[in-house]
């Protein structure tokens, strides 16, 4: 079996550590990097170093930013009375892409998952409760993925927030737009029936 030169083997090993990248994809990326012009390879390396050195979490909502507060928290036109709680920044970005939500966010940085060693103390729940006590929030939208861990996190948060007199809502789950009922799984149909609304 052919062995790669040590620097190339090291690059492949490092690329394999990335989520969703297997040995073949890592090899393909490594060879692509090798063929890149020097300027592009250096720009890629500098971008990785810069993101690691400059990106921090927003002191208010824990979104990624290169300043003390993220652009969403700094935007005075956002509705501060509505707070959307998400598991991670990718979820925040998905909601932002809709261009429909105008409130603020709180990023938990994960979900409760005892199997993965993630308990409530590893999440930004304490900071969420501090925000709810110091800011004028009227509604908290819990936007978790419809998984066992996401549902458990949503239920836990709901039990903490409701006694504060704040309205707690959750994203609806159900049949996707354009989907066929006969292709939907049983859990999706049950959820769709449970979260039905009036026409």
Structural features, described:
The structure is a single chain. With 199 residues, this protein is an alpha/beta fold. The chain has two domains: 6-54, Helicase, Ruva Protein, domain 3 (Orthogonal Bundle), CATH 1.10.8.420; 77-184, Dna Topoisomerase Vi A Subunit, Chain: A, domain 2 (3-Layer(aba) Sandwich), CATH 3.40.1360. It contains eight helices and six strands, in the order αααββαβαβαβαβα. It has helices at 6-16, 23-35, 38-54, 71-74, 89-97, 125-134, 148-161, 186-194; strands at residues 56-57, 64-65, 79-86, 103-107, 139-143, 167-170. The chain has a four-stranded parallel β-sheet with strand order 4-3-5-6. α1 (6-16) crosses α2 (23-35). The termini are far apart. The relative contact order is 0.08.
């Amino acid at each position: 079996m052919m062995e790669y030169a040590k620097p190339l083997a090291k690059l492949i090993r490092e690329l394999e550590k990335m989520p969703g990248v297997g040995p073949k994809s890592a090899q393909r990326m490594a060879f692509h990097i090798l063929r890149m012009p020097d300027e592009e390879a250096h720009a890629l390396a500098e971008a990785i170093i810069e993101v690691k050195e400059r990106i921090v979490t927003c002191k208010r909502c824990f979104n990624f930013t290169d300043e003390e507060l993220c652009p969403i928290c700094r935007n005075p036109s956002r509705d501060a009375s509505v707070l959307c709680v998400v598991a991670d920044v990718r979820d925040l970005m998905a909601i932002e892409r809709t261009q429909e939500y105008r409130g603020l966010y709180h990023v938990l940085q994960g979900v409760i998952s005892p199997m993965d060693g993630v308990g409530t103390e590893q999440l930004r729940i304490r900071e969420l409760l501090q925000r709810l006590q110091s800011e004028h929030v009227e509604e908290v939208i819990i936007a978790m993925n419809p998984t066992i861990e996401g549902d458990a996190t949503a239920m836990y948060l709901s039990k903490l927030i409701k006694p504060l007199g704040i309205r707690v809502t959750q994203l609806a789950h159900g049949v996707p737009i354009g989907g066929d009922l006969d292709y939907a799984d049983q859990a999706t149909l049950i959820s769709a029936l449970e979260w039905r609304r009036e026409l």
